[in-house]
Design goal:
Layout lengths: L1 E18 L5 E20 L4 E5 L9 H13 L5 E6 L10 H16 L6 H11 L3 H6 L2 E5 L4 E4 L7 E6 L6 H5 L14 H4 L5 H7 L3 H9 L1 H12 L5 E2 L6 E4 L4 H10 L2 E6 L2
Parallel strand pairs: 3-4
Antiparallel strand pairs: 1-2, 2-4, 2-5, 5-6, 7-9, 7-10, 8-9
Helix pairs in contact: 1-2, 8-9
Length: 273
């Protein structure tokens, strides 16, 4: 039996820089791992099984099960494992929980079977599973471009305390991307300003924006209420990914804790990792 940690991420800003011929959007974003994580247990099983709790996700729809099946297709090796995932990362929250689970299990299974896939092949397989999955193969801090799969890993990490407010709303990334209009695009030549701030967290966070977050704010009143509440208490909130989670720097004030409790919002205190 093996126990693994599957860490979440936040996007310290996300800008849309273009739309490709295949309909996907090109982005510029800064990924950063955080200490919030799911717990994964892997044990021997004669057949491939994936169990998720406390959230109920059917095995066939689970990205980890798809990962194991894709590994079997690529290598001819059937993973004789049962994977149990204790989810602490909220679903549909823009924190990359499923992508992280997929990457962690893919790396473990490849190692378990004596590395039939090279590092390059693992990244290629990860890309076929989802745009965020390759980032989680290494984690830390990285600039993501293309559809988020062209990664430039940085040799630095921040360690600031942050907290996340999750309003218990699941959001489909595809649904939000479909609402991006040409007026929302950021010129690629303007991105160099953000690139120049990657060594300074305070300045980076001050300039960070999320184009998708603006759409989420308009379409989901629950997220808008979280953003307005954090602003009222003097914080600078930012939507992570395509939402619905909102994060900011520092620690939550006692009155904010009470508001979250009354509203039924999940408050998660974590750190950049």
């Amino acid at each position: 039996m093996e126990k693994l940690k599957s860490f979440a991420k936040v996007n310290i800003g996300l800008w849309i820089t273009g739309k490709r011929a295949d309909g996907y959007h090109e982005i510029y974003t800064v990924f950063h791992t955080i200490s919030l994580h799911d717990d994964i247990t892997v044990r021997y099983s004669p057949s491939t099984r994936v169990i998720t709790y406390p959230y109920s996700i059917s095995q066939e729809e689970n990205i980890v099960f798809k990962t194991l099946k894709r590994f079997e297709e690529w290598t001819g090796i059937q993973p004789e494992v049962e994977v149990q995932i204790h989810k602490k990362i909220p679903l549909g929250a823009g924190l990359g929980g499923g992508s992280s689970n997929a990457a962690v299990v893919l790396k473990y299974i490849n190692n378990l079977y004596k590395n039939p896939l090279s590092e390059g092949e693992i990244f290629e397989l990860a890309q076929s599973l989802g745009a965020d999955v390759p980032f989680f193969l290494k984690g830390g801090m990285a600039v993501g471009e293309g559809i988020g799969d062209k990664l430039r890993f940085l040799d630095r990490r921040f360690n600031e305390k942050i907290f996340i407010v999750y309003p218990d709303v699941q959001i489909s990334s595809g649904e939000i991307y479909r609402k991006v209009t040409p007026e929302m695009l950021t010129k690629k030549e303007d991105i160099h300003i953000i690139d120049s701030l990657l060594d300074d967290f305070e300045k980076l966070f001050e300039k960070a924006e999320n184009t998708l977050g603006k759409i989420v704010e308009e379409d989901f009143p629950e997220v808008k209420e979280v953003l307005n509440t954090l602003k009222f208490f003097g914080y600078r909130p930012l939507v992570s990914g395509s939402g619905s989670s909102v994060f900011t720097v520092g620690e939550p004030a006692p009155k904010l804790r009470k508001v979250c409790d009354i509203k039924g919002w999940r408050l998660i205190e974590t750190t950049l990792l």
